Amino acid sequence: MNLKPFICLLFFLSISIGFSQGTAEKLNDSAMTLYKQDPQRALVILESALDIAQKHKQSEWIAYSKNNLGIVYRDLGQFQKSKALSEEALTRTKDERALASAYNNIGACNRSLGDYEAALTAYLNALTIYEKENLVIEQATVINNIGMVYSYLGMNSKAVENHLKAIAIFEKENNKKGLSDGYNNIAILYANDGELDKALKYFKSSLTIEKSLKSQKGIAESTNNVGAVFYYLAEIDSALVYFNQSASIERAIGNLAGVGASYNNIAQILLENERLEDAKIYIDSAYYCANQSKTAVDIETALNMYSQYYEAKNDTETALYYYKNFTTLKDSLLNIETNSRVAKLEIEYQTEKKEKEILSQRADLAEKELDLSRKNSYIWGLVGLAVVLTLLGLLFYNQQKLKNSQLKKENELKDALIKIETQNRLQEQRLRISRDLHDNIGAQLTFIISSLDNLKYGFQLPDKLNAKLKFISEFTTTTIYELRDTIWAMNKNNISLEDLKARISNFIDKANSTSENVTFSFEAEDTLQTEIKFSSVDGMNIYRIIQEALNNALKYAGAKHIDVKIHSENQHLEILITDDGHGFDPKTIEMGNGINNMKKRANDIGAEILIESVIAKGTTIIVKLSLQKLNTTFDV
User: Fold this and answer.
1) How far is CA 240 from CA 195, 228, 235, 307, in A?
2) Does the predicted TM-score (pTM) go above 0.85?
3) By CB distance 3.0 to 4.6 Å, which of 50, 63, 437, 440 could disulfide with 92?
4) Residues facing 623 on adjacent strands
5) Residue range 175-192, pLDDT digits in tens
6) Which top CATH class is 496-633?
7) How far is CA 313 from the centre of its chain?
8) What gap in Å lies between CA 457 and CA 209, rounded to an integer?
9) DSSP 3-state assignment of 374?
10) For 273-384, where are the E strands, in sequence order?
11) What's the average model confidence in pLDDT over 9-35?
């Protein structure tokens, strides 16, 4: 039998398999380098790579190709398809890095689809693997993504913490794409808090980076974000230019989710400028694109704008229909129960991480003890009988010292675990109480507002009764805001000075928008210690004192200007609320419940409160807290 042809066949077959494997790898690498600039071409290349891998039954490269396809489809806004591809990739590979990449993509899809709990679970799985593999850039990417989940849930302090941590890593590693994403995310939080100049600075920095990387997807997102800041700055023409540029790029790369987001922004501007019919065209397009891509946030936004459009057209029945759909979707995506589960996932992840560290420390300690024991035994054998008693005494002393050291470390570990468990129980109790407040009282108050709105829309009521219903509705809405403030404080172990400044700024912005004849200003000294923190009770009392002072000035002072200032002086934190109203004589005027409540709250937190008023010149309320007391007695 002539074996030469058979051997040649095997030789060429082995070359063919090796070539195809190399081709699948190279095609994947080429596509993932290209996809930010030309996603459609990247899809064609990845489909070719997948065909080659499937033809030669290369399971690992099938997994890589499917997950990479999922990543590109995610950037094109096809989140369901993207998620399905990455989930299939999980079943086809045992490679740790491939698994982590798939988990990260699944997390991003779930986040866009509004399933925040599932998103955080997937992200934590990815982060665990990247930490194990010591992949620093990938860790920072996932940490940045986790920050976005907290941002969507309204947990801004956690979001900022994660974004800043990720940005620090990207800056250290000089990773431009990571920095761009981090700048974008932190800018969104600044924009939400009303710090528009900071937001615009970060968005423009991100746009510059994306242009240098020639990333069409990144350029589109950053362009859209810059347009949003110009909108908030009331520079409408500039905003429309940026929104249209973003929509054009998203259409070119086939990303329906991005197109929907840009169209929603354009429709909002058109509605506010009473260009109703033009706005309706963009709302329809945005709603179609958002439903095609299953983007929960953009569907929610489109429903809200439908309600605004029909309200402007005086079609109250249709407006109410869309508003109910909007609130139903919003409540399903964002609720305290979801926040509680997300917080629980974070605690479980951190606890598991601590337990692994403890086990590692114990293993190191046991290994060191064994090594020391062997050395002692070796030395004892060499020294001989003459020094037996001395070595026995030294050995006993060392063993006792090690035992005491071990007991001390074990006690410290036990104390740490007890402290963690206590904090977890306290957090669970806070979450349970706040959930009860939201689900019971909050839901009942919301039902009252909805019922009052239904009465106004459904019946022709006398003007006096309409005015009364409006008063009740506004009072109930105010009660809900105060309930949310209380829940906000309960959900925090402590309240930082930055948290308090942001809360005060939001309250003043709302007061400014509803008080036509009064102007407000809010200043906080830049040199204040950023590490200043209050307990949740103290922080809430300080916020209530300021809130009560502002309400009194609005109701009774007849002021045209109301100023709030926070600064430090003589080792004290001072808060001043000043108005130019009627003023009064503190000696002759009987103090009402509002001022008495402020004094009681100040006394409860160990603060000093002074009320200075001059008739026809105005009133100043000063609250003083000792910085030394805050720094020495506050227990984190």
Assistant:
1) 21, 9, 9, 22
2) no
3) 63
4) 575, 609
5) 888 888 888 887 888 777
6) alpha beta
7) 36
8) 50
9) helix
10) none
11) 60
The pLDDT assigned to 515 comes to: 74
CB atoms within 10 A of CB 393: 10
- Model confidence over 269-284: pLDDT tens digits? 888 888 888 888 889 9
Distance CA 313, CA 531 (A): 51
Helices 256-272 and 216-232 meet at what angle, rounded to 10? 20
Dihedral sign for Cα 540, 546, 550, 556, please. positive
> Could you give phi then psi for residue 110, rounded to 5 degrees?
-60, -35
Instruction: Supply the DSSP string of 448-467, one letter for each residue.
Output: HHHHHHHHHHHS---HHHHH
pLDDT score, position 345: 59
Burial of 622 (0-12, 13-18, 19+ CB in 10 A): middle
Calpha distance 395→333 (Å, rounded)? 65
Sheet with 572-579: strands ordered across: 519-524, 561-569, 572-579, 618-626, 608-614
- CA–CA distance, 98 with 126 (Å, rounded to integer): 10
Residues 182, 203: Cα–Cα separation, whole Å: 10
Mean pLDDT within 416-442: 61
Residues paired with 495 in a beta bridge? 534
Tokens of 241: 């230019």
Ranking 21-25, 53-57, 217-221, 575-579 by mean pLDDT, the lowest is: 21-25
End-to-end CA gap in the chain: 84
Numbered ranges of CATH 3.30.565.10 in the chain: 496-633
What is the pairing mode between strands 618-626 and 608-614?
antiparallel
Q: Find the Cα–Cα–Cα–Cα dihedral 454, 456, 457, 460, rounded to 10°.
A: 130
Please answer whether residues 92 and 63 qualify as being in contact, where contact means their C-beta atoms are separated by less than 8 angstroms.
yes
What gap in Å lies between CA 636 and CA 634, rounded to an integer? 6
Angle at 164 between CA 156 and CA 160, to 5 degrees: 5
pLDDT at 578: 93
> pLDDT confidence of 36, banded at 50, 70, 90?
confident
CA distance 312 to 273: 11
Strands 572-579 vs 618-626: parallel, antiparallel or unpaired: antiparallel
Most confidently modeled of 7-21, 300-314, 454-468? 300-314
Contact (CB, 8 A) for 93 and 58? no
Say if CB 222 and CB 184 are below 8 A apart.
yes
Residue with tokens 């429309």: 240
Both tokens of 515, joined, read 């008080």
Whole-Å CA distances, 70 to 46, 82, 103, 106, 416: 10, 4, 11, 9, 42
In this predicted structure, the answer to whether residue 108 has a pLDDT above a threshold of 80 is: yes
